[in-house]
Structure to design on (74 residues):
């Protein structure tokens, strides 16, 4: 059991991973400069990751698909 100060995960447990070190470092820089906007982006990405609009686009190439239990998913 966790207690005071323990991190409480978001309700939808999506895991977002950086494709490379540059993406990770960019995310960290944004976190220090615009944490509110970055939080809104995180919510948008994890609440409906398949949404496509003017700001959210699907990943391209090998990053756009994953195999789960033999099935290929977006």
């Amino acid at each position: 059991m966790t207690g005071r100060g323990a991190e409480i995960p978001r309700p939808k447990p999506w895991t977002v991973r950086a494709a490379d070190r540059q993406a990770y470092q960019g995310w960290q820089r944004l976190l220090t400069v615009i944490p509110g906007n970055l939080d809104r982006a995180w919510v948008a990405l994890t609440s409906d990751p398949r949404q496509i609009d003017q700001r959210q686009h699907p990943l391209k190439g090998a990053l756009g698909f994953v195999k789960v239990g033999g099935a290929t998913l977006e």
